Amino acid sequence: MKKLKRDELCWCKSGKHYGDCHMAFDKKLDVFQKKFHKVPPRSIIKNEEQLQGMRESSKINVAVLDYVAEHIHAGMTTEEIDQMVYEKTTAMGGIPAPLNYEGFPKSVCTSINNEVCHGIPSNDIILADGDIINVDCSTILNGYFSDSSRMFCIGNVSEENQKLVRVAKECVELGLAQVKPWGHLGDVAHAINEHAKANGYTVVRDVGGHGIGLEFHETPFVSYVIKKGTGMVMAPGMVFTIEPMINAGTCEIYVDDDNGWTIYTDDDKMSAQWEIMVLVTEDGYEVMSW
Ligand code: MF3
Ligand code: CO
Question: Which of 127, 241, 261, 289: disulfide with 146, CB 3.0–4.6 Å?
């Protein structure tokens, strides 16, 4: 990579001089790299204009999930959730990111009970009293992506399943508390995995979070089972999702043979997931979508 002089324009396309923009940042990352830490590539460091675009996209994503939260109820089909998401997203000027993404047929993922993620909305799936369901929304606005998901408890959910839903949310909160510049993604993973284990649960290894912004899924892959102090260094301007899948039983999973998407727990036990999209800032984090 060409070394920029301080009065040249910065590589982040902010329009600012390198010396007033990412020069100190690059020095800092160099130190980590020399010690063989994994550092973020420039392509995933967002400038202020891009972040603004992602905030606008996130506003729609949050509004759509709020809308689902108001209307979800026992007796409705997951197809109806899909319609709500499509209508609300497009009414606000956005595009549902899952629709036609690598062949995904719907606007949202709805994963119920023993489904871990990537459940496909269907007329045949009717929400019943006692179900727990993850609704995973993602939006594109002006080319900028946002992504977050929430759990919903339908009617009277057993204490046992309510606990799983609660602990899965706590895992995200504890992971988030570890987000700070020059920390490691492994710090986030460690906090999540320890809390899951302490409650007798497991964390899915084969599916994880991801960078996001100009694309739906950018580098890095965000694992929640790596060690503290390992994994990519978190740097200001990085945006990624925290979305651990917490299983009541085994962490092993399998993919639906027929549709190629839906992921289930291997032992048919329950799974819960919350997802937030987080920006690493100069002094901590900003939650963009939740
Ligand atoms: N929202 C999911 C995620 O968190 C993406 C699912 S891809 C889809 O990464 F095609 F299934 F929507
Ligand atoms: Co995601």
Answer: 289
Q: Is residue 21 part of a domain?
A: no
The answer to whether the beta carbons of residues 141 and 54 sit under 8 Å apart is: no
How close is the Cα of 148 to the center of ligand 1, in Å?
Answer: 10
Tell me if 86 is assigned to some domain: yes
Give the burial class of 135: count Cβ atoms within 10 A of its Cβ; 0-12 exposed, 13-18 middle, 19 or more buried. Answer: buried
CATH code for the domain in which residue 183 is found: 3.90.230.10
- Contact between 236 and 132 (Cβ < 8 Å): no
For the chain, the domain total comes to 1
Cα-to-centroid distance, 289 and ligand 2 (Å): 11
What torsion do the CA atoms of 224, 175, 244, 215 make, to the nearest 10 degrees? -90
**Residues 6 or more apart from 185 whose CB is under 8 A from it?**
220, 222, 223, 226, 230, 231, 232, 234, 240
pTM exceeds 0.70: yes
For 267, the token pair is 């032992």
Cα 108 to Cα 116: distance, rounded to the nearest angstrom: 14
Rounded Cα gap, residues 230 and 45, in angstroms: 20
Domain contains 102: yes
pLDDT along the chain (290 residues), means of 10: 91 98 98 98 98 98 98 98 98 98 98 98 98 98 98 98 98 98 98 98 98 98 98 98 98 98 98 98 98
Q: What is the span of the domain harbouring residue 75?
A: 38-289
State the closest ligand 1 atom to the C-alpha of 138, by its place in the atom list counted from 1: 1
Give the Cβ contact number of residue 182 at 10 Å: 14
Which residue's CA is minimally distant from atom 7 of ligand 1? 98
- Testing ligand 1's pocket by substitution, the residue of 85, 86, 118 carrying the most ligand atoms inside 8 A of its CB is 118
**Cα angle value 117/119/277 (rounded, 5°):** 45
